[in-house]
Each structure stands twice: as structure tokens, then as C-alpha cells.
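Raw record, unedited: IS30 family transposase
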Amino acid sequence: MAGRRRSDWALRAKSPSPGRPGVARREDRRRFWTLIGVGQSSWDAAIGVGVSEAVGSRWFREAGGMPPSTLGRSSKPPSGRHLLFAEREEIALLRAQGCGVREVARRLGRAASTVSRELRRNAATRSGNLEYRATTAQWHAERAARRPKPAKLVTRPALRAYVQDRLAGTVVAPGGAAVAGPAVPWKGRRHGPRQPRRWAKAWSPQQISRRLQLDFPGDGTMRISHEAIYQSLYVQGRGALRRELTACLRTGRALRVPRARSCGRGKSHVVPAVKISERPAEANDRVVPGHWEGDLILGLGSSAVGTLVERTTRFTMLLHLPRMPGHGDRVRAKSGPALAGHGAEAVREAITRTITALPEALRRSLTWDQGAEMTEHPRLRIDTGLQVYFCDPHSPWQRGTNENTNGLLRQYFPKGTDLAAHSAEDLAAVAAALNTRPRKALGWRTPAEALDAVLQSAQTGVATTS
């Protein structure tokens, strides 16, 4: 017994060190998932809690996009029977100051036996001595208290085989031969909607869960909820289904997306101050001219033509959006310009070039949908003086004049045709054809005649006031 190490009195089996105990960042992780829950990205949430972006991305990826149950907002607080991490820090400080077990227990308001047992069981033993560190002690306590429950898909091979076959089974032709489909490598992330997707039976987890009740009506062991299937796919710590099988889901997501983040995705440029509800009332009654509605008409090969329609006179102007040099010749650089010609910068320049040719009296507001091509609307407002407003999502009727005009333009620019083949002169000719067409809403006057009347009345008003 002379050579026995003091750490043998810790009364626990030796275990290899898995690295730095993670308890030091438990509160950081809790705040990290709180920020994720309000819609922040993993990078922004990591910066918000004071860790690197790579650490935040790893936390998000390892958890499958879902906060761990012990860190979620619904998790129960620790019981008062057990020592808290703050108490373990106090124990470490008092022991470093030379306080005895009973003195430490008196200051903490705990039993001396509790402190003595804590110093023996949860001490750091790598050096062979019973040194006490708060982070290591908390780590040992959590490992001892862990009661992992194996996933149902791990303990029931028949159920796992059924789920995998309905989720990732091969597609079979009517004759019974398997159809492999395209070979799609696993990239560890969601595949784009236009890329080849893996062919599989692709039953949804809910379909699998409900079908089990029909295929095995009397077998209670063949039951699983669809949420358990999702967690087995996204949370790899459960050890049931490989994450590669998420490619068989209809969304193809390798990670879950928090609901708050998905609600604000792609709409960061639409703030409450520029929504259509803030548009002045004079734009609704069509009495005051100068309020415009705009949109893009899309064609083959990512070609597009921009449209601007004045609400009072129905006067139409078309925006020429040619493709940029290099489109289709090389792979587009990440975060580079939209070479198709209808990116935010190209649309802003086209609107500015077209609308500034009009008098200031006809430049009051512009209403657009929530497309990404209008992300530079603050600069457009500065360059042209237009107040830009955005419609509500999936509400094209809020730009009814523009939608009706786009329908008329499809006579000249049918769907499925390359709109980039038309020059600026061609677009001007089509706009002139529409603007010289009699309209019932204008008392059978043409939009050009209605606009001329507006301009003449504006000039008369200026002459009178002077």
C-alpha cells in the first residue's frame, strides 16, 4: 500500500481524459441557444457570447440545429439537493485559502459530510493527488449523474430497418427493377433545389410513424413518433440514423432551421418603416400622380425585364437589364455580382437612369415586392428622391396595376423565352405600344395622353403661382 496514489481514494474507476471539461462554457452555450432562438445566425450568436465563429458553428452543427434538452428554455433548474457550479467555485476558493472542511461547510450552509464527499469524489486526479478544481468537479458530477437512455431505433433493429427502408429505400420500377437515379455525393449540407437529388422512397417521418400502426396493429414494439425519427437524423449523439439520410427528406436539410431564423430569412432589407402600410393615403386613391409600382418579368436563362407603372395614368416604362460579361462562361464567384443582369446594383442603376428623366412631381413613391433585387433601396431613395415601399409577402394584389400590366406584356414577352435577346430599342417600342393603347380605366384615353394632361396641369400650376 506504500506506493498507492492518493487519487485512488476518489472511489471511482479510472477514465481517459476527453479533454477540457465543457462545463466552463455551459452558461455561454445557454446564452448561445437563446440568441439562436430569436433568429440570429450561429456566427452572430457566437460573437454575442464571446466565443469564436468556428466554435458557434460547431455547437450548432453538433446539436443538429436544436438546443440540447439540458440547455433549452424548458429545462428544469437543478435541484437544491445538489451542489451548484457557483458553490463548487466557492469551495475551490476557500480551499485555496487554507480553510478546513467544516469552515467551508459553515460558509456554504451545507453539511460537512457533503463537502468532504465532494472533495473526495470529484477531485482532479490526473496528477495523482486530490486537487480540487471547480470545472473538473462539475464535470465529474455531471458524468456521474448522467442516465443516458438509448434511442428506440438503436435497441430495436427491426424498427430501424423499417424506418430506413421507407426513408432511404431504392426506387423500384413497375417491373420490379431498382432504379438508381443520379449519383449525388454527400456534402454534409442541404442540396440546392436545382441540383440533382438522391432518388429514394422518401417517405416523410410522419408517414412512416402513422403507417407502422397499420402494418403492425398488434405489435407495440413497432411504434415510434415522427419527432423521434427527426431527432435520430439531426442529433448524431443518439447513434441511430446517419445524418447522410437527411438527403432523403424532402427539404434535404442536414440541420434544423430555428423558426425565428426562417421567418426573417431573405427579408432583412424590409423593415417596418418601408412596408406598404406606411405608404401615404394619396397613393391609394390614384388622385395624385407620381406613385409607381415595379416588378421583374423573368424569362429563360435567368433573363429579366423590369417594369415601372404609374398608378394614376397607367404609364409604363421598361427597364433594360442585359446580362453582364462572363455570364455562362465561368462559375459565378461566391458573393459576387449577379451576372444575369437583374441583381440589386443593376436594378437600382436601371431605375435611377429611367426615373430621373421625369420631373420631380412624378417621383413620389415606388412600391415593389420583397425581392432581393431591391436590397439597395436606401441608395435608390437618395439618388432619385423616391420613397420605396414593399408589399406584404404573397400579396401581389397590393400591386394590382403592375400585375395587370405584366399580364399585358406577356403578349410581347411570353414565358419560356429569352428576354435578354431584346435590345433597349425593342423595349422602348413595346412600352410605346402600351402607352398608346386606349384604356377603359382612363375613359378610353391612352396612358400617354393622361400623362401629358398631368404634365400640362403641373406646368400651368407653376406658371400661376409665379
